[in-house]
DNA sequence: TCTATATACCTTGTATTGCAAGGTATATTG
DNA sequence: CAATATACCTTGCAATACAAGGTATATAGA
């Protein structure tokens, strides 16, 4: 009857990761929203995508926290809002990566946990 | 002034992972809520903990979905609700682990992404 | 010219969830 | 007898992802 459906769970898993990945992309170079969306999808083969209804509010949240800063510019005849990583965003990104590594290891330990006590 | 605070972000990251880890623990043997909470905290050195306000509603959600099944028992003079993993939960867990591996790799790719194009 | 598509940004409403903070009840220890 | 640990539970709040809608411009093809 009802198939296994982990779609909403996948959303949960992506939660937070998107944020860290956006900061990581901006560390490399400034980018605009649409570009971030496409790049993320491409690098991760679709595993980490961001819907626009998620992306734009998220960018504003990151800006309000002082992690990134956006500026409107015209390039290639197109009006785009380019975001750059701020120092506070860099420090935050580094803290996030630290925690991410800890979480990865922690989950590995739980998943590998076998009956060997 | 305001320090970098990624506490709420950490919560985001834990989202979903807790669910997968609980199913993984129950794959090994049946456990009761309080035991799951303590075990998770211990295996992961506190990185993945579950507040009780999170745990018990979560266990009920997992049960409603047919992933696990709980039974009240008296052991060591204590009334405990033991949960066991159901077949549907096992299939789900395996799908989760598959996706988790993909996500881990995807994030690694984004984080390692350097100016080498 | 007209249309379709891609680019690029945005908003509203809904559903889901983690957690703080409260609770109950029993068993154990000092 | 008090404090602590065990073991479960509920309510209300805040945060967020997404669907589904929107606007506006540029480009390519008929």
Structure commentary:
Two copies of one chain form a homodimer. With 117 residues, chain A is α+β, with helices and mostly antiparallel strands. The first copy, chain A, has a single domain, classed as Winged helix-like DNA-binding domain superfamily/Winged helix DNA-binding domain (Arc Repressor Mutant, subunit A, Orthogonal Bundle). Chain A has five helices and three strands, in the order ααβααββα. Chain A has helices at 7-14, 17-28, 33-43, 52-64, 87-112, and strands at 31-32, 68-75, 78-85. The first copy, chain A, has a three-stranded antiparallel β-sheet. In chain A, strand 2 and strand 3 (78-85) form a beta hairpin. The longest helix of chain A is centred in the last third of the chain and has 26 residues, at 87-112. Chain A is globular and about 55 Å long. The model of chain A has no long low-confidence stretch (mean pLDDT 89). Chain A binds chain B through residues 4, 6, 9-10, 12-17, 19-21, 24-25, 28-29, 40, 43-45, 47-48, 88, 91-92, 95-97, 99-100, 102-107, 109-111, 113-115, and chain B through 4, 6, 9-10, 12-17, 19-21, 24-25, 28-29, 40, 43-45, 47-48, 88, 91-92, 95-97, 99-100, 102-107, 109-111, 113-115. The first copy, chain A, binds a DNA duplex (30 and 30 nucleotides) through residues 8, 11-12, 14-15, 18, 32-35, 50-58, 61, 77-81.
Show the largest interface. Answer: A-B, 43 and 43 residues
Percent helix among the residues of chain A?
55-70%
**Shape descriptor of chain A:** globular
Described by strand count, sense and barrel closure, the largest sheet of chain A is: 3 strands, antiparallel
CATH architecture of chain A: Orthogonal Bundle
SSE sequence of chain A, one letter per element: HHEHHEEH
Kindly name the structural category of chain A: alpha+beta
